[in-house]
Amino acid sequence: MSEQHGRVALVTGASRGIGRAVAIRLGALGYRVAVNYQSSEAAAKETAEVIRGAGGTAFTAQADISDQDEAKGLLEAVAKELGPVEVLVCNAGITRDNLLIRMKPTEWNDVIRTNLSSVYYCTQAAIRGMIKTRFGRIVAMSSVAGLAGNPGQANYAAAKAGILGLVKSIAREVASRGITANAVAPGYVDTDMTSSLPVDVKEGIIRQIPIGRYGMPEDVAHAVAYLVSDEAAYVTGQVIAVDGGMTMQ
Ligand code: NAP
């Protein structure tokens, strides 16, 4: 993949896990990276430090992307610091697992706002600039739960499936403007989000993964790096599952 000299990339939720790996990968490829976080300031600074240590450019930007005004402010802050966002990776996400029968409205609403509405907020705030320059790359983090559903995750699966419809609609709206919009659907990836699963549950999951292991954040980062590259100009409205073969058909 060719080096992308100086393109501005915003990765939401880049303090930890998959977002961190995406930010570091894009930094290594020559993007100037905005590392967004909500509350993990030290971890976000460490991500930016890793990028700078490898000779890249990075800056940290605190914002709660589940709030539309904060999401708008984030895009403005990045534009002021680095220039208009050309590559937007909507990665930030949370889980609030519960069986549907017991799911509280706050568990439903928090997950929908953080995992789905945030993609609308950030994309809307970024897209005008992309249309003006006739270049843009949007990648949103879905999940195998959005493809197949998952017991205990009706809220999460609904948000992640919603991302697919949202991304495909955006892709159709701006396809003629040099802007692509795609989704990545990771399977089980070794991050804080999955670390609290009991060992027997983890072993059961691994038995369902043909490749026989959890994904690493870097496995997902490579797929994102492809989708945002110049080489992926003809790929839009797609979902790439990075799941060790879990959902192959
Ligand atoms: P993680 O380790 O829990 O990290 C979540 C990241 O999102 C953190 O950087 C966190 O920031 C940020 N974040 C959460 N709420 C936010 C908000 N309101 N505003 C801004 N940032 C916010 O999660 P992960 O496993 O890397 O997951 C990343 C994405 O991949 C999520 O969308 C997740 O649903 C998806 N995914 C993960 C897996 C998996 O197995 N891990 C599988 C499929 C899909 P702070 O550090 O500041 O809290």
Q: Please, could you describe this protein's structure?
A:
- This protein is α/β, with parallel strands linked by helices and 249 residues long.
- Helix content is 47%, strand content 15%.
- A seven-stranded parallel beta sheet has the order 3-2-1-4-5-6-7, sandwiched between helices.
- Helix 1 (17-28) links the parallel strand 1 and strand 2 (32-37).
- Helix 1 runs parallel beside helix 2 and helix 4 packs parallel to helix 6.
- The protein binds NADP nicotinamide-adenine-dinucleotide phosphate.
- NADP nicotinamide-adenine-dinucleotide phosphate binds at residues 12-19, 36-40, 43, 64-66, 91-94, 114-115, 141, 143, 186, 188-189, 191-194.
Labels describing this entry:
single chain, 249 residues, alpha/beta, Rossmann fold, 9 helices, 47% helix, globular
Query: Mean of the pLDDT scores?
Result: 97
SS field, number of helical segments: 9
The best one-word shape is globular
CATH architecture: 3-Layer(aba) Sandwich
- Measured distance between first and last alpha carbons: 28 Å
Poorly predicted sequence stretches spanning 5 or more consecutive residues:
none
